[in-house]
């Protein structure tokens, strides 16, 4: 994928009190859990234990406004050849400001991830966002197989 065109200027957001960090100690676990388990379509019903483990084993990007968690993304990767982008969200009150683009730009341009051969993600409704960063439908979808086990909701 290489370095992508810069869509969003970091300073524009920083001056408005926004910040992105991979420091897991800053994450507001309850805010992340509440959004993913109750509001998202992809992780509805996820348990706290499963999410804690997922966060522990991922590179996490917290999106903050004046130290309040307003967005999140996880990257599951070997940091060399493969990366899967998961659990990307911006809270509804903060949407339509370019923050999801800024978050994705920050992930894709991370110096520690240069040279990744394959980036993957799954989305129901954000194709337009991800296409701006070079994502496209699988060229050889017949080569990819999956086991999909939905979370058990009680």
Describe the structure.
The protein is built from five helices and five strands; from the N terminus they run αβααβββαβα. It is an alpha+beta fold. It has a single domain (10-133), classed as Aminopeptidase, CATH 3.40.630. The longest helix has 11 residues, at 29-39. 19% of the residues are buried. The model has no long low-confidence stretch (mean pLDDT 91).
Structural class: alpha+beta
Order of helices and strands: HEHHEEEHEH
Tally of domains? 1
**What is the 3D form?**
globular
Task: Determine the mean pLDDT.
Answer: 91
For the sheet with most strands, the description reads: 5 strands, mixed
Concise structural overview:
With 154 residues, this protein is of the alpha+beta class.
Detail the topology: elements first, then pairings.
Elements lengths: L9 H5 L3 E4 L7 H11 L8 H9 L2 E7 L2 E10 L4 E9 L8 H10 L9 E4 L5 H5 L23
Parallel strand pairs: 4-5
Antiparallel strand pairs: 1-2, 2-3, 3-4
InterPro entries: Acetyltransferase_Butenolide, Acyl_CoA_acyltransferase, GNAT_dom
Protein name: GNAT family N-acetyltransferase
GO molecular function: acyltransferase activity, transferring groups other than amino-acyl groups
